[in-house]
Amino acid sequence: MYKDIKDKLKKRVISQYxxxxxxxxxxxxxxxxxxxxxxxxxxxxxxxxxxESEKMQLTNEIVDELTGFGPIENLLKDEAVTEIMINGPKxxxxxxxxxxxxxxxxxxxxxxxxxxxxKMLAPTRKHVDESFPYTEISFADGSRVNIIIPPLxxxxxxxxxxxxxxxxxxxxxxxxxxxxxKRMSEFLVAALxxxxxxxxxxxxxxxxxxxLNVLSSYIANDERIVTIEDTAELRLTQDHVVRLESRTxxxxxKGEITIRExxxxxxxxxPDRIILGEIRGAEALDMLQAICSGHKGSLAxxxxxxxxxxxxxxxxxxxxxxxxxxxxxxxxxxxxxxxxIVQQEQLLDGTRKITHITxxxxxxxxxxxxxxxxxYELEGLDAQxxxxxxxxxxxxxxxxxxxxxxxxINLAQEIFNKG
Length: 419
Fold this sequence. Notes:
- This protein has 3 domains: 1-67, no CATH class; 69-164, 2-Layer Sandwich (Beta-Lactamase); 171-416, Rossmann fold (3-Layer(aba) Sandwich).
- Helix content is 35%, strand content 23%.
- The chain contains 14 helices and 15 strands.
- It has helices at 2-16, 18-21, 28-46, 52-67, 73-77, 110-121, 171-177, 182-193, 208-216, 259-266, 283-292, 307-319, 327-337, 402-406; strands spanning 81-87, 92-96, 99-102, 134-138, 144-148, 158-162, 198-202, 225-229, 241-245, 273-276, 299-303, 340-346, 352-364, 367-381, 387-393.
- The chain has a 9-stranded mixed β-sheet, with helices on both faces. Strands 3-2-1-6-5-4 form a 6-stranded antiparallel β-sheet.
C-alpha cells in the first residue's frame, strides 16, 4: 500500500508541477507544500490508512527524491559522513570517522537507483549505458562520484561518493585532525612557497588529494595556476586559475582527450604552476620534462604505497609511454624534476596520516636516493582500537634547505633536529 501510494504521488507531482523543476534550483519548501496537498488528496481517494508519521515520511521521501538524491540525501547532508558506497538498491554503506558500516537505507528498486544516477549525471556532459557502463563526475561542492552499472556491476548500479570536506580549509585543520604535526605543516607550507616540486602519494581514500588541496591554498594569489584532472575535484581559491578536465570517448568511441594531450597544451598557456590531479600514464614523462625545462612549483597526485613505490611507478609509466629511454635517463629525469614525496595512509583505526615526507636526493650507486625527513612511527593500538604513534624528524636537513632563504622564507633549521 505504502509503495503504491508513493508511486502515484510521485507521478502526480511530476505531471502537475513540472514547472517547479524547470528552474535551475527547485524550491524544496514550495514542492513540500504541493506534495502534502497531493498526499492528502490521494490518501483520501484511496481510503489509505496511513499514520501521521507515515504521511510525513512519504512527503520527505518524495521531496528528497525530486529535489535531491532520494534515500541518500540525508547522508549527503551529514557532515560526519565522509564516503557513501551504494552496492545496488538494497545495500548502502557509509564511512564515519574512518569506519565503514552498513546503513539501514535502501532504494525501492534498480529503477529508483538509476533515476538517482541520471539526476547525478544531468548537470554534466557524461552518461552511462550498456555500451559505456562507468564514469566519474564531481558534484558542485567538489565531492567525487564514481558510477558503474550492469552488465559490469553484477549487484546492480554501484555508486561511490567521496565527499568534499568543508571543515578542512587550512593546514592547521589537518594538524587538528592528526594528519601531521606542526613542524611538518610549517615545512610543507615553506616547501610550497619555495616552489618545490611535490608528489602526493598514497592509496585510494588516504586523503592525499585533500592534503594537496589544502596546501595549494598557500600559492600566491597573483600566480597563474593550471589544474589538469580526469574528474575536476580540486577547489582552488586563487583568482587566476585555469581548470582543465580530460574527456572520455563518446558513444561512438570518438572524441577522447587524454591527460597527456591536455598537459602538452597547458605548457603553451604560460602557467606559473601546474597541478596534476593524478598521474596515471604517459603524462608522467611530459610532466618531468616540463619541470626540468623551468616549470617549478608543480604539484601532482599519484597512487603508490610508499615513496619508493612512487619511483617504481614513474619508471613503469615512462617505460610504457612509447618513448625509447633507458633507466639511467629516466632516473636523471626523476631526480631533476621531483624534490619531495608526501606519503599519506589510512591506518587501521580509519585515521589518515602523513607517514613520510621524503626528499628525492640525487643518485647513489646507480639508484635514486630517497631521504626521509619526517616519519610517522606506529607503536600499536590501544584498548579502544585507536592507533598509537608519533611523528619523528630523522635529523636529515634537506639539500634544498638553502632555497628557503633565497625565496625569503624564514624556516628554522632546528625543525629538522632528530626526534
